[in-house]
Amino acid sequence: MDISKILKDGLKRTNKSQKEIGVVNHFSKSAVSNYFNKGHVPTNVTIDIAKSLNDYDTSNAIASEWFDILKTFDGDRFEKDALSLDAFTDFENQQSHDVYVKDSIRKLIADNRIDKDEEAGIDHFIDEELDNVIMRMGRLVALCKLRDETLMTVFKHRMEYYVTEHYMSKDNLSKSQRLMMERR
């Protein structure tokens, strides 16, 4: 999917016009038309448009397209409310745990090798664990939205703790991540 299609979909969802986006971002009429219809949208412009749309689905789709970031579940399987999100998150967590126990995944990880018969158990667990992680990510994103923050902002604030507790090595952080930690 190209970025201009994602931005067009965001316009529809938010009931905003190209003109409105142009005015807010100080873009010419022809520039806005190009961004939404021709396909090439510079990175900084995409970010500006996404911010002015203020639409989670647009931001999520852009992040997924650019960075191969997993999209959180957004289908119609459940209502987009806290109780439904919690119920499905708990359900996926329980399924993952049940497969972990039933297929002795801890032992397989400790053994650091598997045979043909154990591959199916590992595959099943990977599927269930992925479901679990994505549901939990969805809940985290919903909570971050309540605080008007992104998941990455919260992660950056928490990074110092991860380094202090030796979950992350300070040596492997990017230059900007190290600078951000030093400023705190």
How far the N terminus sits from the C terminus, by CA atoms, comes to: 38 Å
Number of strands: 0
Please tell me the total number of domains.
Answer: 3
Cα shape: globular
* Order of helix and strand elements from N to C terminus: HHHHHHHHHH
Described by strand count, sense and barrel closure, the largest sheet is: none
Please report the number of helical segments.
Answer: 10
Give the C-alpha Rg: 21 Å
Mean pLDDT: 81
What is the beta-strand fraction?
A: under 5%
Overall structural class, as computed from helix and strand content, comes to mainly alpha
Low-confidence stretches: none
Helix content: over 70%
Describe the structure.
The chain folds into three domains: 3-67, 434 Repressor (Amino-terminal Domain) (Orthogonal Bundle), CATH 1.10.260; 82-148; 150-183, no CATH class. It is globular. Helix content is 73%, strand content 0%. By secondary structure, it is mostly helical. The longest helix has 31 residues, at 116-146.
